[in-house]
């Protein structure tokens, strides 16, 4: 009776709000408010609608709108709990996230640029909010599979847009390439991310999950569709010409093979070497240039790393402050002629931002997530969780490898992607545990 009364009050207040908007602000704002109220009602009716919509739309939305959508999921869960009495829970899996969140908040208050740190705090808080909402809302294997399918469909559209760019042509910025040593490269695709290296980060995170789903699927028709989708994701990574992305996907591929079947190494090595013969010469040149000491982008990164080490030495314990703004401000005090946004290395960037203590707990978050994924998913007797877990585990390994040459917690949409994958891991673990308990209880009966 109380729940019904609250629903009536909510609808009544929403009607008054929309009417006031129409009266004072006009038709355009009235339509926007009406759409917002309808969306809110749908999410309150079933928060999974909001989770699915957010997972599909955020790569295509402006950063501010994506932030609102991702952040609001946790808010809606709390609102539903207050309005309708629904319960939520927090498990031991969230402890590493809670510690990292505390360090991020503390480092924001002690930052050399507190207002600048708020940007990254808000983005990561949105990601953590989504993890909280996802783990408390997706409760069955079928729901999880539906969420992952929507997530991967969005990634496929992103990849297709990138592949189309390769054939239609897009403008290349000069800082994306050492033009003296890569004179035959005319296109590096970036899809909706405005930078090929950022697109590569996104695809490195998503592609291993597609491989895991392909590996699990028994239906030939579905396996073909998943395999084709995986091929398109890999093709798009190739077209980014991102050497860091290639390193990341190589780490992910090696991880997946070791987890699923080590014997595949015997097959994979000759296939990989043989495949080099079919790659375009410009791709071969990019691969060879990975360790080049004359490539300007390599030298640029090395210079940044050297100066970042100076920043770390001078701010070893607490760092300069959470986020790229305090790092950028501090870095440019050391060298005025190199305006940069991040250290092009996640581990150096994190240490410079939040100090050695923060770096240790950040690594513990990554390693604990990998441990949970391995113990509860990869080692599961359920083939679905086993192969999904192998994909998720490899996704984290891949982005950690990519993090050697890029900072993957800088661009909002990559931050969201990272936390969504953390959320999928924790949600899958929770469902796997519950299904195992249900099975054991049935056996004892």
From TrEMBL:
Pfam families: Wzy_C (PF04932). GO terms for molecular function: ligase activity. Residues 231-363 form the O-antigen ligase-related domain. Its main location: membrane. It is found in: Membrane. Keywords: Ligase, Membrane, Transmembrane, Transmembrane helix. Signal peptide: none annotated. The keyword Cell division does not apply. It is a multi-pass membrane protein. The chain crosses the membrane at residues 12-45, 51-78, 90-109, 150-168, 198-217, 224-257, 347-372, 384-404, 410-429. This is O-antigen ligase family protein. It comes from Peptoniphilus ovalis.
């Amino acid at each position: 009776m109380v729940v019904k009364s609250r629903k009536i009050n909510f609808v009544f207040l929403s009607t008054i709000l929309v009417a006031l908007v129409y009266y004072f602000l006009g038709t355009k704002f009235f339509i926007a408010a009406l759409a917002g109220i309808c969306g809110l009602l749908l999410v309150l009716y079933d928060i999974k609608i909001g989770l699915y919509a957010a997972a599909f739309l955020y790569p295509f939305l402006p950063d501010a709108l994506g932030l609102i959508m991702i952040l609001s999921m946790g808010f809606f869960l709390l609102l539903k709990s207050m309005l309708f009495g629904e319960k939520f829970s927090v498990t031991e899996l969230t402890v590493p996230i809670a510690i990292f969140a505390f360090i991020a908040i503390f480092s924001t208050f002690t930052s050399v640029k507190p207002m600048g740190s708020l940007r990254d705090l808000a983005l990561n808080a949105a990601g953590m909010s989504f993890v909280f909402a996802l783990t408390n809302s997706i409760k069955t294997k079928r729901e999880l599979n539906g969420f992952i399918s929507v997530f991967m469909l969005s990634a496929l559209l992103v990849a297709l847009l990138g592949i189309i760019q390769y054939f239609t042509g897009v403008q290349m910025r000069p800082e994306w390439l050492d033009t003296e040593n890569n004179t035959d490269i005319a296109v590096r695709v970036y899809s909706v991310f405005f930078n090929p290296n950022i697109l590569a980060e996104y695809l490195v995170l998503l592609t291993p999950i597609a491989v895991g789903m392909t590996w699990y699927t028994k239906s030939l028709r579905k396996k073909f569709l998943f395999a084709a989708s995986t091929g398109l994701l890999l093709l798009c990574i190739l077209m980014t010409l991102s050497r860091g992305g290639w390193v990341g996907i190589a780490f992910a591929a090696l991880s997946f093979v070791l987890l699923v079947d080590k014997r595949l190494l015997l097959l994979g090595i000759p296939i990989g070497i043989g495949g080099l013969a079919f790659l375009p010469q410009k791709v071969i040149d990019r691969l060879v240039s990975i360790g080049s000491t004359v490539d300007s982008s390599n030298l640029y990164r090395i210079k940044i790393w050297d100066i970042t080490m100076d920043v770390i030495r001078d701010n070893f314990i607490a760092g300069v402050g959470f986020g790229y703004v305090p790092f950028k401000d501090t870095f440019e005090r050391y060298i005025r002629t190199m305006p940069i946004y991040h250290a092009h290395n996640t581990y150096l960037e994190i240490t410079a931002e939040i100090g050695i203590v923060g770096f240790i707990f950040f690594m513990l978050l990554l390693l604990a997530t990998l441990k949970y994924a391995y113990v509860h998913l990869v080692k599961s007797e359920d083939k679905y969780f086993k192969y999904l877990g192998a994909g998720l585990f490899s996704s984290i390994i891949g982005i950690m490898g990519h993090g050697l040459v890029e900072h993957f917690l800088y661009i909002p949409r990559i931050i969201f992607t990272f936390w969504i994958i953390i959320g999928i891991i924790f949600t899958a673990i929770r469902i796997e545990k519950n299904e195992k308990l249900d099975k054991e209880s049935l056996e004892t009966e």
